[in-house]
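Suppose a classmate hands you a notebook page containing two proteins, each written out with its sequence and a corresponding row of structure tokens. How would you begin to make sense of it? This section walks through that situation. The first entry is reproduced here exactly as it would appear on such a page.
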Amino acid sequence: MSVTTVVLAGVGGQGTILAGDVLAKVAVAEGHDVKLSEVHGMAQRGGSVDTVVRFGETVHSPVVDPGVADHLIAFELIEAARSLRFLRPGGRLVVNRRLVAPLPVLIGDLPEPGDLEPALAAEGAIFLDAEALACEAGSPRSANIVLLGAASYGLPFAAETWRRIIAERVPPKTVEGNLRAFQLGSEACAEGVCEL
């Protein structure tokens, strides 16, 4: 069995680390060797947060080299563009339509980046509005779980395993909303609602 590499890229506060933890636990529950690494760049201040999950029969390292990732799950547009270098040719790119402006843009030192969606679309991106789906699920803070649902459509794990691990990992009061958010994310890709 080969090793599958998933990169989750977002900014502090988006739940990237929780999403990576859920994915790693799902892979372990299904019998895979798993390596997990996280890179925090001023995470609490909206800086970049990358989580790499690698799973397979035997995984020797959590490190991902450029052009190796099979899946890139981007929690916002700028991080999608920044992390695109990790995705292998023909890899799966799932992108949340949200844009989180970095500090230089917020204070007016740099213009807001433009044309990100067309550039990512040219790379085969699958777009969805994770925040809107999270709100539809009744769990506005569950955009990260929506994105896991979208990612799950291309990963080899049973839906029941996903549901069990999500229910174990999120706060008890939020289980129902998170499970619905996961379902909506998965259905969005399965039904072609995610736009190519």
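The notebook's second entry, a different protein, reads as follows.
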Amino acid sequence: MKPFYGRKKLYETEKRMKYRKVPQYSALAKIYGHLMRSIDYNDWAKYLLEIAAELGTENCKVLELAAGTGELARLLSNKFTDYVAIDSSYEMLSIASAPVKLVCCDMTSLPFKSKFNFIFSTFDSINYLIEKEKLRMLFAEVERCLEASGIFTFDVSLELNSIKNAKYLNRRGKYKKIKYIQKSYYDIIERIHYNNFEITMEDGTKYYEEHRQKICSIEEYLELIDTTGLYVVNCFDAFTFNDVKKDSERAQFILKKKPC
């Protein structure tokens, strides 16, 4: 599938009218585990533990942003003494079974007064912050909530990932009598990756979710972070400890607070 050039692609009007548009990860929550069944959460958890290794884990306070259904929290909860997982979707958190503190909130407006040693976000959740001002708000909140010697790490999806892999996310299927259609495309002009879902519940109710992700360059992230109270310690080719490259599809940022 080639990147989509020009204005945003629209579904046929008569088809869209059959579906009720709902917030991201509300109806999708019911089939999220099925859609993510190929993800190796164990390897992801190990990678995060390696990033956090210098902090130790015994008295480490952890904050996971955009935790979704809590699969990573479930795997990591026994490694840390204090673990808080947040997500803006109540429907996603309601499925989580991890023995951690769950808080429904926006990651750009954190309700915490206490500080954390390790803050992280995974699976390109940061890409959902479409506007740069939202990114600034996130970094300001992380800076406020991060201990002086703490670590903030997050991954992002880069343009090559959208160009190469958008076509593989066009799919349809059925899970527990719930039918779904996913349509994925990349607007290379606006640099927005769209993942749109048409979901038909067992009772025939139809929902539509539009997911948009902003695809920024590494340079844009670096320039923005430089204006905050955080600085980049490393930027890796995701899931490795090799420096990010021009042909990387995903990047892993490691940030700390600037010295006072």
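A careful reader of the second entry would note: The radius of gyration is 19 Å.
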